[in-house]
Amino acid sequence: YTWGYPEAGPFDGTIYPALPGAPSLLVCLFVAVLQIVQVATLLSQEALGPRFFVPWACLPNVYNYRRSMRLEAGTDCVICMLELPQTQDRCVAITPCNHRFHWTC
What we know:
Elements: H1 25-48, E1 92-94, E2 100-102
Antiparallel strand pairs: 1-2
């Protein structure tokens, strides 16, 4: 605002020195375009996820907690201590240390 209309702000030359080159249409357009880019980035992160622009090579390895594994009969959930189902419907989560628990737990 001070670069676009310097007479209305504190940089009019009475209190502080006047801004050099003010008013400047180029600086005002640059600031407006910068704001548009920032808003577009935030909206795209809201729609596509916060890491959509990070290359796959730079992303860390992610552990798959829903990997398929055969469960023995009588295997209990380590959180609620109820027996885990023997079906392969992916309702069981398996940690890296091979603890098994219900996905809802």
